UniProtKB/TrEMBL annotation:
It is found in: Cell membrane, Sarcolemma; Cell membrane. SUPFAM superfamilies: MFS general substrate transporter. NCBIfam families: SP. Pfam families: Sugar_tr. This is Solute carrier family 2, facilitated glucose transporter member 5. Signal peptide: none annotated. InterPro entries: GLUT, MFS_dom, MFS_sugar_transport-like, MFS_trans_sf, Sugar/inositol_transpt. The keyword Membrane applies. GO terms for molecular function: D-glucose transmembrane transporter activity; fructose transmembrane transporter activity. Residues 17-458 form the Major facilitator superfamily (MFS) profile domain. It comes from the Eukaryota. It catalyses: D-fructose(out) = D-fructose(in).
């Protein structure tokens, strides 16, 4: 039996996964943590720019509001990017969208780079919004692309690489943010432009790699191009089983044509998928991990960790997260998705309760802040080893091709709305340690829902998974039964 590495290296699959990663979710990860290290310098830049312009010192509330805008405009851009997924991907295909997306990322980097010389915090806001757009569009297309190139037996491992590249991006953001590298006041605008280098690499290399086979077969109806793409990715073979699965899915799509996001919301046959997606993603964004990624410097400062040690603590988070994601990728096809999700969220809930206690005791002894930091690191490990990776896989599996684009628009919209809420609200809540109780409750909700409701998706075709969701009943009732009753009436 072939090992995973042998399967990935028979063709260009591993190379494509890497190139997609550096221009896809890597950018999301970098921009999540890359802003944390230079945050004090950007606040001082806002202060000095305001003073140069108006000859008066801005109030602390004004600086906090502009800083919150800089953080949250990234999410606003991400929202626009997510909403445009269906339109842009349908017109251009997966590969061309990724290339165009990288061009926009380079334009954003140019605006960010020149903002310091122009003494304009407005340019930072514009650049962050463009970064957000490329993250919202690129992150969705990246995950979709992975789902459409991967064979069923290793689909979980392949799609989980999107989460691995998020953690790699976070780690790079933390490394480049160190004062020994680019984390100095005179270089804050440069540290925020590093991902543009990876966008350039993607623009140069991606045109020589194949389009997604599933897209070519199901949406373009080109079976020869599909087979050629499969052989290019996974080595020589007839791939009859894979193409038969696509043929069955194509027949299902012809019976039920592609839907818009609004049509998908009205469709009772996918109501459990939509509910699952909504609950888990809501809990994902409000689990505390988004806040830790964006505001790690402020959180550890509030926890009592010495200022000069914070960057090294956040680097420790990045390294542990990266290792755990890789371990999760190797584990997911053995354990399945469900245990990783409900177990990870359950342990995270316990960690946040303990963090709340230690934050209230931080002045009692010099070692208590380090206990708080350790618990936060432990919580990120449970997240990346469980729900952080497995949910990426689940999202790519629970919708058939005709519903996938509309579903990704809805997933992306929800993701970036919650990201914006966290970015705007958390700076004002950071001094209230009890906000971690909210994170604990959300993690507990996700754990219970996954344990009792979510079906296992490991090793099943997309049509089989769809049927499993249709079979879900609560108190002896299902959404399909309600639909039949309505039809009879």
């Amino acid at each position: 039996m072939e090992t995973l590495l042998q399967q990935l290296t028979r063709g260009n699959a591993l190379f494509l996964i890497i190139i997609l990663g550096i221009g896809g979710t890597f950018q999301i990860g970098y921009h999540s943590t890359g802003l944390s290290s230079p945050s004090p310098y950007i606040r001082r830049f806002i202060n000095s720019s305001w003073y140069d312009r108006y000859e008066e010192t801005p109030s602390p509330q004004t600086i906090t509001m502009i800083w919150s805008l800089i953080v949250s405009m990234y999410a606003a851009g991400g929202l626009f990017g997510a909403v445009s997924v269906k339109l842009v991907s349908g017109m251009l295909g997966r590969k061309k969208v990724m290339i165009c997306n990288s061009f926009i990322a380079i334009v954003a980097a140019a605006i960010m780079l020149t903002s310091k010389g122009a003494k304009s915090y407005e340019m930072i806001i514009v650049a962050r919004m463009l970064y957000g757009y490329t993250s919202g569009l690129g992150g969705s297309i990246h995950l979709m692309y992975l789902g459409e190139i991967s064979p069923r037996k290793i689909r979980g491992t392949v799609t989980l690489t999107s989460a691995t590249f998020v953690s790699l991006g976070k780690l790079f953001g933390q490394i480049f943010g160190l004062s020994e590298i680019l984390g100095r006041e005179e270089l804050w605008n440069i540290v925020l432009c590093v991902p543009a280098f990876f966008s350039v690499v993607q623009i140069i290399v991606l045109p020589f790699l194949p389009e997604a086979p599933r897209y070519l077969f199901i949406e373009k109806g080109d079976d020869k191009a599909c087979k050629k793409a499969l052989q290019s990715l996974w080595g020589q073979g007839d791939y009859k089983q894979e193409m038969d699965e696509m043929l069955a899915e194509q027949a299902a799509i012809e019976a039920a044509p592609p839907k818009s996001p609004l049509q998908l919301l009205r469709d009772r046959t996918v109501r459990w998928q939509l509910l699952t997606m909504s609950i888990i993603y809501c809990c994902n964004q409000l689990s505390g991990i988004t806040a830790i990624s964006i505001f790690s410097f402020d959180i550890f400062l509030e926890a009592g960790v010495p200022r000069d040690k914070i960057r090294y603590v956040t680097l420790g988070i990045g390294i542990s997260e990266m290792i755990t994601y890789i371990f999760c990728g190797l584990l997911i096809e053995h354990t399945g998705r469900r245990p990783l999700i409900w177990g990870g969220y359950g342990f995270m809930s316990a960690c946040w309760v303990l963090v709340t206690i230690t934050l209230n005791l931080k002045d009692s002894s010099y070692w208590v802040p380090y206990i708080s930091a350790s618990l936060i690191i432990l919580s990120t490990i449970f997240f990346s080893g469980g729900p952080g990776g497995a949910t990426h896989t689940v999202y790519s599996e629970i919708f058939i091709q005709s519903n996938r684009l509309a579903a990704f628009v809805l997933i992306g919209t929800q993701r970036w709305l919650f990201y914006a809420v966290v970015g705007l609200v958390f700076p004002f809540l950071i001094n209230a340690s009890y906000c971690f109780v909210l994170f604990a409750c959300m993690c507990l909700l996700a754990s219970l829902y996954t344990f009792f409701i979510l079906p296992e998706t490991k090793g099943k075709t997309l049509l089989e998974i769809s049927e499993e969701f249709k079979a879900i009943t609560v108190c002896g009732k299902s959404f399909l039964e309600e639909k039949r009753v309505e039809t009879k009436l």
